[in-house]
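Hi, here's the filled form for the chain we discussed.

Project: internal
Contact: R.S.
Residues: 241
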Amino acid sequence: MERYLSGLAAAAARALGDDLVGCYLHGSAVLGGFDARHSDVDVLVVAAGATSAAQRASLTAGLAALPCPAVGLELSVVTRAAAAGPTAAPRFELHLTTARDDPKVVDGHARGGDPDLVLHFAVCCRAGRVVGPGPAAAAVFAPVPAALVLAQLVAELGWAVGHATGEYAVLNACRAWRFAVDGALVSKVDGGRWARDRVGAADRALIAAALARQRREAAVRLHPAAVAAFVQRIGAHLTAP
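And the returned structure, exactly as it came back:
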């Protein structure tokens, strides 16, 4: 992992030159729960200002040449101004993923903002790790208002039920619940551990099964109806007046 991150930082430096502010690791690699068997390597690259098409193409090519020691890389390039002024859908320069089942390269200049960046910015501000030279994450990423973080966590609940695994949906709901209670941003695994002791027997068993599947300790089946009902209850709790 360290060799990979060093190579990533070097590729960003070659592509962006003096326009590079820094590369910042976030996600499960800094919050905990990272498992190379099913986790992405999550990185935000911050540029001093708008990037050129040549810079974006150079970065994409440089990163494609690096073998990722996990499921894949999920990386976005944002400007320093975007990182310093979080909105409900921050603008971005480039987004790319290298996971085998979902590789993509998206030019942010042709798109609107990306709501997913709300949580990425929030994690970077609180726990991001600078990779290679550059200022500390807290000096680049402004604190994200709690209302924006909670709104994005709630929005992800419905997406997870329809598009993610059962364990992801359950544990994602648990970490959203944790943030709503005390403002802590934690990994899905830590969210599940926290919630497991605060629910009834049926939900406790569901969360325990989700944790076991997430850690690849067991292949217990999560019934889709039970997953959807749990996520719906958490969502109703989070949006209650």
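Let me know if anything looks off before we file it.
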